[in-house]
Q: What sequence folds into this?
């Protein structure tokens, strides 16, 4: 009897733990910009204050999209995209940087709620606003943080001029060309000393700088010389401020190390957007990969295809390409995704050759990251993951930092749909180019390739053809076939990017 009572109390206790006490209330939000107050829904979950995401979007004039089947909410705010997932504390900013909050996003009565830290830590920085939270009067006060523009610094080289606009704190900004050939940099809530910032002294491609202060914003107009052909602006990386880059027609834009504003060049390229793509030639060094009946090593073929793909991409688009290896060296699987993540790449493509016990197996396959579903997928997954044995002592558990890996994995899952789409466009383009028998099934191939895990971007793995099939082994060794594979992958990438541009009304 006594033990029954104890069991009952324990069950009751567990039941209470499962029920998160939630207390909802209506607060008023007040704006400094003259908008009238309005009520917002708040809820207290385990003593943490939450706000309805719909209200947050209204407060910040953000557009929102709810993917109910995925439990995801996407906010578009100024130049930024924020992805939130129900029950997850991770916010992915601009498809690249996962930020971990202390508390997860919650779903209550069909409404998505975000912890207050989402506003005070993430949105405040992003929008240059301060939120004052007054518990006593149940009001929220939203006011802009002003940005002081302290100085301009010029860096002039042969084909480009860089103007560093130093500010405090980090600014919001936009850069546009005006009708009379000036570049206009607008800093909302910016404050400047027009006399100090304006200058008649030419610096490289900048002939004159005119600064204006209006009540709501600061404007800096750059008069540029006639041979200035392109320009772009992005946040400074090493300190607070904006980097305005003005280039001659001959200059190649440097890769942005942070999400840049779109490159404003038009034409001359079939990919209108600035971006970075990591190409990962499978295997290398002490890891030869699969070996064909005539001794062809997978690592040599993957490198040859990757080099051709790099050449094609660089000559036909303004995408930047990074290879995870340039030569026959061994690089661990975890290291490959680390290269992609630290480069903040937009796409990750791992290139491999397929292998089978049967010499008759043939064709092209493209995979994206997920849990392997059928035996063929499991076999491919096991084969490509064998390299882990080269990397870590047997019986030890890769990766070493499980927690960090989990965080990246969660972020990678944000790109499940994109990866699937990329897999599809690349597979279709390859099939058209190579005319090999289709191994592509409806719904595509999914497998948990280690190399694709942990990438915070759409990621696919291409198994170009079967190195274990004598005919395909011969083809894989020919420059023509390697070029076709590279061209097929490129066309798939172009199709993917243009699809996403069309599909997204915000772009
Ligand atoms: Zn391989």
A:
């Amino acid at each position: 009897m006594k033990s029954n009572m104890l069991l009952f109390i324990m069950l009751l206790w567990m039941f209470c733990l499962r029920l998160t006490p939630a207390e909802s209330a209506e607060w008023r939000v007040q704006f400094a910009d003259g908008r009238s107050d309005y009520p917002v829904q708040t809820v207290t979950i385990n003593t943490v204050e939450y706000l309805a995401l719909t209200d947050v979007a209204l407060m910040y004039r953000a557009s929102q999209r709810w993917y109910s089947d995925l439990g995801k909410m996407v906010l578009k705010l100024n130049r930024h995209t924020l992805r939130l997932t129900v029950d997850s504390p991770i916010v992915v900013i601009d498809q690249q940087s996962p930020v971990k909050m202390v508390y997860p996003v919650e779903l209550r009565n069909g409404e998505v709620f975000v912890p207050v830290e989402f506003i005070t830590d993430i949105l405040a920085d992003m929008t240059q606003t301060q939120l004052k939270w007054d518990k006593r009067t149940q009001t929220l006060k939203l006011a802009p943080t002003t940005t002081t523009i302290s100085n301009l610094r010029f860096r002039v080289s042969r084909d480009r001029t860089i103007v560093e606009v130093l500010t405090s704190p980090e600014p919001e900004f936009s850069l546009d060309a005006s009708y009379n050939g000036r570049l206009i940099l607008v800093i909302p809530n910016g404050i400047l000393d027009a006399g100090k910032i304006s200058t008649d002294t030419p610096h490289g491609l900048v002939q004159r700088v005119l600064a204006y202060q209006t009540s709501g914003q600061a404007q800096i107009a750059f008069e540029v010389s006639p041979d200035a052909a392109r320009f772009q602006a992005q946040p400074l990386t090493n300190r607070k401020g904006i980097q305005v880059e003005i280039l001659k027609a001959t200059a190649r834009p440097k890769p942005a190390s942070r999400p840049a504003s779109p490159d404003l060049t038009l034409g001359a390229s079939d990919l209108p957007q600035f971006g970075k793509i990591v190409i990962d030639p499978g295997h290398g060094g002490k890891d030869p990969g699969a070996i064909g009946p005539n001794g062809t090593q997978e690592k040599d073929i993957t490198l040859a295809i990757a080099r051709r793909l790099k050449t094609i991409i660089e000559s036909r688009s303004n995408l930047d390409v990074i290879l995870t290896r340039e030569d026959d060296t061994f690089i661990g699987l975890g290291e490959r995704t680390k290269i992609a993540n630290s480069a903040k790449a937009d796409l990750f493509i791992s290139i491999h050759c397929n292998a089978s016990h049967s010499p008759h197996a043939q064709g092209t396959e493209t995979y994206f990251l997920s849990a392997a579903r059928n035996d063929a997928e499991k076999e491919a997954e096991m084969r490509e993951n064998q390299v882990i044995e080269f990397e870590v002592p047997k019986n030890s558990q890769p990766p070493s930092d499980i927690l960090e890996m989990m965080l990246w994995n969660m972020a990678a899952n944000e790109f499940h749909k994109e990866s699937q789409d990329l897999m599809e466009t690349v597979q279709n383009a390859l099939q058209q180019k190579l005319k090999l028998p289709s191994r592509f099934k409806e719904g595509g191939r999914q497998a948990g390739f280690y190399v694709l895990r942990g990438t915070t971007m759409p990621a696919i793995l291409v198994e170009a053809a079967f190195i274990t099939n004598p005919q395909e082994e011969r083809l894989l060794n020919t420059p023509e076939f390697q070029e076709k594979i590279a061209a097929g992958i490129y066309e798939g990438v172009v199709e993917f990017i243009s699809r996403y541009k069309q599909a997204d009304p915000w772009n």
